[in-house]
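Budget justification note: compute hours in this period were largely spent on complex prediction jobs such as the one shown. Inputs:
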Amino acid sequence: MMTQVVIVGAGPTGATLALLLVKRGITVKLIEASRNFRRVFRGEGLMPSGLDALEQMGLSSMLERIPHRSLDAWEFLIDNNKLFRVDEPMELGGKPTTLVSQQALLGALISEANTYSHFEFMQSAPVQDLLWNEQRVCGVKLGDGRSISADLVIGADGRNSIVRQRANLPLEEQSQSFDILWFKLADSPHFESENVFYSILNGRHAFALFQGSEGNLQVGWALHENALKDWKQVDWPLMLASVSPPWLALHFQENAETIERPVLLSVVVGRCPRWSVPGLLLLGDAAHPMSPIRAQGINMALRDVIVAANYLVPLLREGLGHAAIDANLPQIQAEREPEIVRAQQLQSQEAEMAQLLGKSALMRWVASNFAHILGDRVRSSWLNRQRELRQGVTEVKLIV
Ligand SMILES: Cc1cc2nc3c(=O)[nH]c(=O)nc-3n(C[C@H](O)[C@H](O)[C@H](O)COP(=O)(O)OP(=O)(O)OC[C@H]3O[C@@H](n4cnc5c(N)ncnc54)[C@H](O)[C@@H]3O)c2cc1C
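Corresponding output:
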């Protein structure tokens, strides 16, 4: 019996899983709501664990063909003083964190999948509901009324997943005290020789700055609850310059007209206690929306995909039937959950640290004025936390 998998959402989770499955002879329909991949913002940071996942999937050469840029260092500034810096790659002989154009990556994944006749990409086709056969999901219903049947539905539709809601799989949200305002602006010669990821804390304001995969500068500004409710009225070039060290303030001033209007990106963080019901599995942000801190989401999504493929490919290829598929879905969650729990814990520790410093003028003063003494200590405790955030927590190996 030929089994058909329907994947909802062509983000990093859906697009990579679709390609893995079609390459292994499985019939896949990938359904995407948006008309193109030019979504306002798609995270670009890939940690060594994510790069390794792409390599295992045989996609390293695809990565070489699309816009990407590696990071040279991470640097932390407090009230304009350098607290510490860590060079990339952090591991001897390891891979540096790399910024990869997600729009180009998704396009390339889908072009390759399109070369297989048993793959179909349905774009501009929002899924609205699930189809059920008694207690089992047996397909999806599109916004235009069409029904698509499936032996297995994968919900890869991101942090506000409709599939998750329709399957009655509740999300346990973790309190998240900030959203993000995203800006793009003209490149600075400062980043030509080195691409440094700056984390800048100035007074209560915190933002990150780096050169993206396509060469422009990107700023992610943490928008705390109750702070800057009137962010649309703020003179952003002036605000950014006022909280930056002199070289950067000058760049914001001189390139004020290139600073695009900020986009508000809502941050959702949480986990579903259950990732599956018979006939349906959630993966990636749909199952466990990740915070943007320390670029974890895409990496976790790619590692989810490898584990899911390990379980699903043999069952689907042999046509072992619905009962066998359903019995394996909870095992995929069980294998992935420990790493997700740990990554979210580490992300929230990083957020708490920044919040603590943001709230306490005294701590900031001490950190800023005694950076030369404290820097090394803070640096090594930060480095200790990075190993798992960079390498992952559990072993993930593609075996199919
Ligand atoms: C501000 C910000 C910055 C981030 N930066 C990084 C970073 O640098 N590195 C990193 O690793 N992670 C980052 N993340 C996290 C990362 O974006 C997510 O974890 C990752 O995109 C999850 O991939 P996904 O494929 O599961 O979901 P998504 O990327 O959200 O993809 C879901 C797809 O499903 C589609 N879809 C939604 N609803 C439907 C529907 N009803 N029918 C059909 N299709 C639908 C969407 O259009 C989308 O294409 C960031 C997150 C935020 C908020």
